[in-house]
Design a protein that fits this description.
The chain has about 450 residues and is an alpha/beta fold. The chain is about 35% helix and about 20% strand.
């Protein structure tokens, strides 16, 4: 990868002086914190960002192989396997997939403890969304660039910086000579952005842990819960005719206008009373139309409109309940319209199907992680739910208490010039290391 800094410039990450408040610190904690390899961590994020690991792209495999090789070189016990995508997607509880993908790779590393402590899983996804309009970027999306404290590039925030941070947390523990009682597992998964294939496959493989940290972008706050997200497709029928006889046809586009307005009202209804964990968000459970396609000839009244969108799933609501709410609401709309009563809107559920998920904010894992954040960063973190779907719900569903904690702001994820703070990435690594010592226990 080309070097993007001027020769002789200090390496980003050098000179970072955030240290834990070490009063009554566990033995070796200061050595671990000071031992996080900040320059190496930045290099690792750059290497990961330079791989265009979009869903379905060959680089989605390459980035998994990169981590497997790096973790082997660090002396970890690494398993890497080909995921049987064709088999998994036939399962009734498969979480969905929105890209064409015939292959995927699973990667799991273990840093063993003495065997008499709890197992901690650190899980990061390596797939990224496409960059969108490249003209909106100030540089090539997959050529990482550093601007002050910002590392810019597709996937830097969501979530390659967090994935590198969890890796370097384990490296810092190892280099400081700390021996934990419990094992640490490092998992690199793909397919998170379009459903959760990698984590689903990991659970199907039988991986279990007593707790999990996912270093998704949270601005170093704690997110123990996520709303869900269901992908849907609507087919709105019209009646085609020559545009010169427009009034004798029925435009599917014109028919869709009141449907869109109806969906906006439904969204408002679904957000009237939200869980306290979600009240920080102006819109906790969005209902959004992302794609609309209609017509095949400029002078023909279009007879079909296809709209694809996303339905937010509330905390405590099942996906089936959310689907029924949308379907019943559209059925009532159709019944009240003469054309739609005869040609009802067709609803199809496809792609990513993210249930909501929740770890109790008073769970000891959440409280212990909050204490580590305060000890390392000197501030009490916020604790709230995320308005987006994630792999958290799969892990919680498997009985693994899970919290999201990582560098970056989710508003920068999926955006042009996506970026992450280098300082926060290093702080994340230090905090995860401190948490691992407290949670897994330090052997005598």
């Amino acid at each position: 990868m080309p070097r993007l800094r001027h020769q002789g410039d200090p390496h980003p990450g050098q000179g970072l002086t955030q240290h834990p408040r070490t009063e009554n610190a566990p033995r070796g904690l200061t050595d671990v914190i000071d031992g996080v390899d900040s320059p190496g961590l930045v290099d690792a994020v750059e290497r990961l960002v330079a791989l265009p690991s979009m869903g379905g792209d060959p680089a989605e495999i390459a980035v998994q192989d990169l981590l497997a090789d790096a973790w082997r070189a660090d002396g970890l016990d690494v398993q890497a396997w080909d995921i049987d995508v064709a088999d998994l997607r036939t399962r009734s509880d498969f979480p969905g997939m929105e890209v064409e993908r015939t292959q995927a790779r699973g990667v799991l590393a273990r840093w063993p403890g003495t065997g008499d402590g709890p197992t901690l899983l650190l899980l990061g996804h390596t797939d990224v969304v496409p960059p969108g309009d490249r003209a909106a970027w100030s540089t090539d999306p997959f050529t990482p660039r550093i601007d002050g404290d910002r590392l810019i590039g597709r996937g830097s925030c969501d979530m390659k910086a967090g994935t590198a941070a969890m890796w370097f947390a384990v490296r810092a523990l190892r280099d400081a000579g700390v021996r934990l009682r419990g094992d640490i597992l490092l998992a690199a998964v793909s397919g998170e952005e379009d459903g959760g294939l990698g984590t689903y496959a990991l659970i199907e493989r039988g991986v279990r842990a007593d707790a999990c940290i996912i270093p998704e972008p949270t601005n170093l706050d704690l997110i123990p819960a996520n709303g869900g997200a269901l992908t849907f497709r609507l087919r709105v029928r019209g009646l085609a005719t020559h545009a010169s006889r427009r009034t004798e046809g029925v435009s599917a586009i014109a028919t869709f206008v009141p449907v869109l307005q109806h969906l906006e009202r439904l969204e408002a209804q679904r957000n009237q009373d939200v869980d306290p964990l979600m009240q920080r968000w102006p819109l906790a459970y969005p209902l959004s139309i992302g794609m609309v396609r209609s017509g095949d000839w400029a002078s023909t009244v279009p007879d079909l409109l296809i709209a694809e969108g996303r339905l937010g799933v509330a905390l405590g609501e099942t996906p089936d309940q959310a689907r029924a709410d949308l379907e019943d609401s559209l059925a009532r709309l159709c019944a009240a319209d003469p054309w739609l009563a005869e040609h009802p809107i067709e609803v199809e559920w496809w792609g990513g199907q993210f249930a909501s998920g929740r770890t109790d904010p008073q769970h000891p894992v959440v409280e212990l992680l909050a204490a580590a954040v305060e000890q390392v960063g000197g501030r009490a973190p916020g604790v709230y739910g995320g308005p987006y779907g994630s792999d958290l719900r799969l892990l919680v569903g498997a009985g693994i208490p899970t919290v999201q904690f990582g560098p970056g702001d989710s508003a920068a994820a999926h955006a042009p010039d996506e970026w992450v703070s280098i300082t926060d990435t290093v702080t994340c690594a230090r905090t995860i290391a401190a948490f691992a010592m407290a949670y897994c226990g330090v052997a005598d």
